[in-house]
Amino acid sequence: MEKLSASRMQEMNPFLNRLAEEMELSDNLPRTLRILRAILLGVRNAIPPDDSDRLAEQLPTCIKLVYLEGAGRNPLIHKVYSMEEFIEEVYQLGGGDSGKTFKRKSEVEKYIYTTAKRIERQVLPAVWRHIIHCLPKPLRFYLEDYVLEGSSAIY
User: Which of 63, 74, 104, 145 fits a 20 to 30 Å CA distance from 111?
Assistant: First the structure.
């Protein structure tokens, strides 16, 4: 995976610092970036290219940079049928049992939740609804049912 340029990282730093703080990883920005990459790549791998393009259009620039990093047209969509499968996909994209990105598989769901909440706070409510609509169904349902209940950003 190619690295973001120094100028792109500079652009991302405010978002990444806030995300790291919310993940309780303030002292580890490289790990926070690896987690963000794994989650975004998991989403990108699970949706058709047209939906991926629509999703990319909705993301704030700092997040879009990571989402599109190394992006190519992948004709094979990894169908995700459950939240557990999505968590496993993200875990494997983060290096699996290597421990470099995720120390334990049980961390993945917490980081997905934290990332979604941080992205939600970066965009307008109407944009967040568009983002949610582009996501794979299990993740969409998870975010609608658990992460965002009571949130002013949805509905």
Answer: 74
pTM, two decimals, is: 0.83
The CA distance from 144 to 14, in Å, is 26
Other C-beta atoms lying within 10 Å of the C-beta of residue 146:
12
Q: What is the pLDDT along the chain (155 residues), one digit of tens a residue?
A: 446 677 767 778 888 999 999 999 988 999 999 999 999 998 888 888 888 888 888 888 888 888 888 666 555 666 777 889 899 999 999 998 888 899 999 899 999 999 988 888 888 888 888 888 888 888 888 877 755 554 444 32
Measured distance CA(19)–CA(119) in Å, rounded: 9
